[in-house]
Amino acid sequence: INEEEEKYEEILMLEEELKENTDLVASTFLERAKVLLKEGRLKEVEKNINYMKKITGNTLELEQLKLDVLIELEQLDEIVALYNSIPGSKYDPEQKISDYLQKYDKANAFAYDDPETKKHTEYTGWVKSNGGNVKKTKMVIYEKDYRGLHATVNIKANEEIISIPISLALSSQNFEKTELAQTLKEKNTIGEDWLIYLNPLLLVLEERKNPESPYKLWLNTLPVHASSHPIFFSEEENSWIKGSNIAKQAQFDKEHVARFYEKITAAVPSFKERHTLEEFGHAYYLLCSRFFGIPEYDSKRPYLVPYADMANTNCYEKRNTTWGYDKLHERFHLTAVADIKKGEPLYVYYGHNSNYVYFTYYGFTMEEEEYDAVGFLMYFNESVPNFLLKKKLLMCEYLSAKITKFYAKYDIRSKSNSNFIRFCRFYWLNRETSALCKY
Asked: Which string of b and e fits 91-121 if b means at least 16 CB within 10 Å?
């Protein structure tokens, strides 16, 4: 038993001795909790609060102490709710709240009483009320549609930071039994693999139009526009990338998304009445840039996970969290891979991508040189050995464009590097040299 537990045992002995004088016992817990609060030992403060509950119930002192804890944790929505529920008393935390609101307004693009802030506050409350454990974090709004998660306490490496029930996540599982999904599956409109991938996108579109959606508070916070993605650039912005491979890729992706939309609306004409091509395109890129793969739970489906999808990325060496799945409790979680100080942002790692991929599909670039890439154009045409056989094996309808693009990175771990090398081997392979591959 450590020193702290001995102190708790001592207080419990007092409880037995002073059953007739509960006020004295409660004040003992209260004073101890105040000391712990000053030391920043918030978990132990909670223990003392629980002891006080057993003895006295929700006393005024207990409510005041909880308010101090919430201010320390920067749980602003709960602070205001609790403050409003406390009857008139000697204790006046108004100055503390005022100071914190000033601090909040300085750190966020929108003031606390702004509708944009209210929207995100309600969303956080929805996550908590549905079993999400996010107490060690807060959401910071840098600008409209650009948010991030920050630590509200000091966090140690390997410590769990966020825990979300998998039942809150959106995937094709939520959508597969709907009439739209069944129709697309029966008509084999876009193929089974693509349907599994696009189902969360279709679910987001459908639920956004549903005023009774259980996901309403979450979907209200998701970006409606993706203006930083090249596919949605204005005419002036397109002039900045004119002639580059990014401009060509953006055009290709526009056509790719439009083909999906046309196939879906051909199979289900009413879809076109509910959702425009522009809305479909924005939802497509929303899915591309926000989904998580959870192989421990489901190796096929992409998942949109509430709250956790607010975490931004950084280079591999500077990431401070990783995600995973707790099979026993059926929860998605973020865990620290390094010590994180109170106030620091949380970073997950989006993978060994190049800046070409980050800019095209996420709308940003990384500053580090290792994310720069060199483009290679492979002219895949009839001059390639065994062209027809290879085209059949690849099953790529767009090979008729004659060019396949690869981007090799400085970072040797990059998937794009290994894909490029594999393709080079495949590209030059002929019947005489194919036997070498067996060895």
From this structure: eebeeebeebbeebeeebebebeeeebeebb
